[in-house]
Amino acid sequence: xxxxxxxxGLSIMAAAGLAGCGLVDNGTAVQYGGMTxxxxxxxxxADRAQFVSTGGPVSASIDGASRAxxxxxxxxxxxxxxxxxVDWQIGPDTPQGQMPVARDDVVFRGRCVE
Length: 114
Hints:
The protein has helices at about 5-20, 60-80; strands at about 30, 35-45, 50-55, 85-90, 100, 105-110.
């Protein structure tokens, strides 16, 4: 078996193992404090480096919702530009009282840094 095939096989087994223990949920959820927080991200059509990411429910935990939104923003940048560096306009370092909330989701805005 070639090294490439072995790496692919190990990657699949690792992903299946993580999914089995609830740490990964199709890349859209984050586990925090024993609860699951869903998130999403959407890029700006005119400038793909800019995006909005959301996470919630805030009513369960603003910390968990913030982690989900930050995770979604980072995943967006990796998928679109191949970088995990984000310049947050509104993000994880924003004071909780200043974080915008819409429909029980925290709303972050950022820009992927190349």
